[in-house]
Amino acid sequence: MLVGLFLLAAVLFGGSALYVWATLQISYSEGDRAGYVQKFSRKGWVCKTWEGELAMVNLPGAMPEIFAFTVRDDAVAARVNETLGQRVALTYEEHRGVPSDCFGETGYFVTGVRLLEGAAAPAPAPPAPPGVEK
C-alpha cells in the first residue's frame, strides 16, 4: 500500500515537472515586435522576473499599441536596459499553458534585442497655424 502511494506521488510529480518543462521549452509562436520600451522592471514577491512594455507606434500621432513581455535571461534584460528610449526590435517566443506567474506574467518571452539603427523617431506635433499661440 505504501509503495503504491509512493509510486503514485512519483508519477504525479514527474508528470507535473514534464508538463512545466514542455510549456517552457516548446514555443507556440515566434516573432519580432518593434517599438520603444517604455517600462521595464524586475517584479515579484518570491519569483523575480523582468517584465516590460513595448510601445509600438504605427503612424505618427496615433495611439501606440502596448506589447507586454517577460524576459527570463539576465543578459537579455541588461541589453533591454541599455536600449531604453531607443527604437528596438524584440525577438520573442510565445509559450501557452505555463502553469504559474512564477515564470513570468505574460506568455511572451523575449529572447533577443536588436537596436534599429537610423530608425526615425516619432514625428513631432505639427506647427500651430499662424496667429495661434501654443
Overview features:
alpha+beta, OB fold (Dihydrolipoamide Acetyltransferase, E2P), 5-stranded antiparallel β-sheet, 5 strands, 25% helix, 34% strand, elongated
How would you characterize this protein structure?
This protein has a single domain (2-115), classed as OB fold (Dihydrolipoamide Acetyltransferase, E2P). The chain has a 5-stranded antiparallel β-sheet with strand order 3-2-1-4-5. β1 (29-43) and β2 (49-56) form a beta hairpin. The mean pLDDT is 81. The longest helix has 24 residues, at 2-25. Helix content is 25%, strand content 34%. It has 134 residues and is of the alpha+beta class.
SSE map:
Elements: H1 2-25, E1 29-43, E2 49-56, E3 65-71, H2 74-82, E4 87-94, E5 108-115
Antiparallel strand pairs: 1-2, 1-4, 2-3, 4-5
Mean of pLDDT:
81
In the sheet with the most strands, the strands line up as: 3-2-1-4-5
Helix content: 10-25%
Share of β-strand residues: 25-35%
CATH architecture grouping: Beta Barrel
Total number of distinct structural domains? 1
CATH class (first level) name = Mainly Beta
Distance between the termini: 82 Å
Query: How does the major sheet shape up?
Result: 5 strands, antiparallel
CATH topology: OB fold (Dihydrolipoamide Acetyltransferase, E2P)
Strand tally is 5
Question: Quick recap of the structure?
Answer:
With 134 residues, this protein is α+β, with helices and mostly antiparallel strands. The protein is 25% helix and 34% strand.
